[in-house]
From TrEMBL, chains A, B:
SUPFAM superfamilies to which the protein is assigned, alphabetical: PurM C-terminal domain-like, PurM N-terminal domain-like
CDD domains: ThiL
Source organism per UniProt: Piscinibacter koreensis
InterPro entries in UniProt: PurM-like_C_dom, PurM-like_C_sf, PurM-like_N, PurM-like_N_sf, ThiL-like
Record-listed Mg(2+) 5 binding positions: D210
Family designation: Belongs to the thiamine-monophosphate kinase family.
Lineage per the UniProt record: Bacteria, Pseudomonadati, Pseudomonadota, Betaproteobacteria, Burkholderiales
Protein name (database record): Thiamine-monophosphate kinase
HAMAP family linked to this entry: TMP_kinase
EC class of the enzyme, as a word: transferase
Binding-site positions, substrate: H49, D257, F313
Catalytic activity: thiamine phosphate + ATP = thiamine diphosphate + ADP
Keywords: ATP-binding, Kinase, Magnesium, Metal-binding, Nucleotide-binding, Thiamine biosynthesis, Transferase
One Pfam family recorded for the sequence: AIRS
A single BP term in Gene Ontology: thiamine biosynthetic process
Name of the gene this protein is made from: thiL
Amino acid sequence: MGEFELIRRFFTRPTRRAALGVGDDCALLAPAPGMQLAVSSDLLLEGRHFVSTVAPERLGHKALAVNLSDLAACGAAPLGFTLALALPQVDAGFLEGFARGLFALADAHDCELVGGDTTRGPLAICITVFGEVPPGRALLRSGARPGDDVWVSGSSLGDARLALEVLRGTRALDGSDFETTRRALERPMPRVALGLALRGIATSAIDLSDGLVGDLGHVLAASGVGATLELDALPRSAILRAQPPEVQRACVLAGGDDYELAFSAPPRAADRVTEAAAAAATPVARIGRVDAAPGLRVLDGDGHEVAAGLRSFDHFTTA
Amino acid sequence: MGEFELIRRFFTRPTRRAALGVGDDCALLAPAPGMQLAVSSDLLLEGRHFVSTVAPERLGHKALAVNLSDLAACGAAPLGFTLALALPQVDAGFLEGFARGLFALADAHDCELVGGDTTRGPLAICITVFGEVPPGRALLRSGARPGDDVWVSGSSLGDARLALEVLRGTRALDGSDFETTRRALERPMPRVALGLALRGIATSAIDLSDGLVGDLGHVLAASGVGATLELDALPRSAILRAQPPEVQRACVLAGGDDYELAFSAPPRAADRVTEAAAAAATPVARIGRVDAAPGLRVLDGDGHEVAAGLRSFDHFTTA
């Protein structure tokens, strides 16, 4: 099977929203008049962003999910995406599974594959996603203000990292618990509905890809503020709660791969936050507050500051 | 140097056109009201799309050039791009050169870097480029009609492939000639001005990345037509003309990496084509005509058909 047959067979579907889809030099999108276009791009490599044993369907899902999560963090409505794919060989079984997972999530968000590129090489997936947002309504990292509450979505922060540690052999879980956490790692659900519902309510937002401490740190730096979090308020699963306290702490604070939204909102908007979360069918928890003093403090149940050194994942400085 | 310092140091510049540039979850573009957005994405891998010895500045240039070439083939005006980059390590010398080549070409086309991703891994570059085109004015592959002339831009088709063969050791050139052809391979100039000038004149267009026969074949298939080309009309350099006839033929017909535009236009529009080319300061040559009968025929100087078997490059079926 050649490159063009591969594209035709696995990645060409009737165009619904785009003016022109897969198969020309460019795709043509027609954003709704007056809307801004939100754009994000992520490159996923085997061995770094996913393990070689991941099910192809989950890989297809996750490759798009991490990009939709960026749209969610901006409060943008998904529109379309491009897919650039390097494959060591043409493996129809792999491609069928990958396309199934990719398109199931794409369809769930009415987000259309409009173009891309395929080449032979070590497995690599680069997706660029496009969404729409009315001018001035995007959720940014720079809007957190002292006194704002800090919120996070989801009920199982850190489960993805726990699964990664099991895959690495540093932790052990029984089969069913491992499957639950592995699902969090390999099949994250981007919080698109919540991001849309928080427009006009949240003062800042970010999606959690590298870990809460590091990602929230970007918001604090961009906003010129600090924050204090309550460790016990961080939502975690019963599976993670069964782990030693230092494992729980590392997973929730610096785990990575959560793809939840962390966001800020004024205390007077707390009811509107919970209403938005209910409308989006997404759990949220208030986990701290924004301070004028720079830096991020995390307090344990006794009000003592948790030691620093829980850094976030960095592709070039983390082992 | 960490991931975020790398982005700040080499890839963050003041935003000129985008509503929001590098540094948030998404970039925000504001296309001019009523314009369609043209999108294209290319993934370049070391060892497949470029040699490890390429100068970083040229690699930065070419990574964007191949994407701008897709906008050119659509007649779209460049707007911005994202860059996803996998690097084996942080090498400031490499990154400075890469960024210099990238931004020099970007600035020449007022095309802004708006976001992206960096990760550690085997050197890989994925650029997604965005351009604007008025609705209904994009140059497509599907518009060629029997009787149209076939045109190609440039004056040195096949030089890029000749340089590749020298790098591979199958051909030899003296130093100065090799440098000239190597420049064609590593520093192609996307025909953006020509693509814009051909709107409303050309009936179809494509950019030549995989070789004239294969790329023109996509146009013929999409248009439901065939074509006859005159081998002697294909523009080539004095350097290529000094090569044996079979080498010339392979390089111009199936060379790849030309990044010229092949396009069709009615014979009555020939003057408008040459005026558009002059306005864009880009040489063009009439190389054949579109036929109703499917298939692509190439005739030599005696009117004999050149043997088939000159296939185009395919990442999965070409050795």
